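Feature request, filed as a ticket because there's no other form

It would be nice if the structure record came with a short human-readable summary line next to the tokens. Right now we just get the raw output. Example of a typical job, pasted below so the devs can see what we mean:
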Amino acid sequence: MSENKPFKILSIDGGGIKGLYSATVLSRLEEKAGRRAGECFDMICGTSTGGIIALGVASGEKATDLAKLYSEHGKSIFPTSNYRFFRYFQSKIQALKQTLFWGKYSAKQLKKQLTNTFKEKKLGELDNLVCIPSFNLTSGLPRVFKFPHKEGGFFMDKEIPLVDAALATSAAPTYLPIHEYNDTMFVDGGVWANNPSLCGLLEALKFFVGDEGKNYTHVELLSIASISQASGWAAKSRKRRSFIGWKSKLMQTSMDGQAYFTHFFIQNAIKKIDPRAKYVRIESPKLSCEQMEVLEMDRADKRALATLKSLGNQDGYTNANIESVMNFFKTDKTYKTQ
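Raw output as currently delivered:
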């Protein structure tokens, strides 16, 4: 083993339509580097919408094309009127569906766009190692979809279509239907790993990095956050709340808390694992009051999409001038999947 051979990981948080922000940030980094992210990272991790982006990157897609999946088709996946008057009544009907019936949205349009992007490609055909968290409702346990690798003797996911892995990681409870594959039911990985950085770090340390005949000396991890809205409540807020009273904060609070702790843990533990290890996180941008009103996990009208794209471009260009970020793109990945 080389004296200094890093195992590079790219991790992308979940966040619904806010994946447009993450994909746009990544597209600006690729533009500055003059190469695709998939050429530079040994492993790509992503949860929910981040899982869709991760699978796209690992299948050879450019981030700018993945951003178009959201900007051009987001409104068909999350139907949202551009007009406030109609959006108000639309939101009431969707809230009723979400609370009492079968969830806010069908997965039909999402599946259509995923099929257009991934065709019939399977996990075993990817260009990078991947970790795509989901939750197996049938077993009641977390599930991580992976590229099959000899280091762990792991081959069970080899024939799983990318479309099914993407639907399994993004099936947000009450927003999109539970995804069934091979007689097993899955929901969004964001219920336990909205920031999948720790999944990638553990996978790397268990199978690829360290002594005992492993091929890599240390981990270098770049993590891209989603846009996080303030989920704190006023001190005198009503304490007894129904599901309707919680609204979207129920899901958002869980995802934000998990993402924050994962970042906090890795930030404090990474150098104790190995002094050579590197960890960089592109954090959520600070939002104005007006932007907070516009952005939601499933709001895909023109104004929301334009705001997400603008924030992504702004943070992408900013981070494209940060050396610690762009260092990840200077060298080729060294793990060969094919």
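Something like this underneath would help us a lot:
Strands lie at 6-12, 43-46, 129-136, 141-146, 179-181, 184-188, 218-224, 278-282.
The chain has a mean pLDDT of 89.
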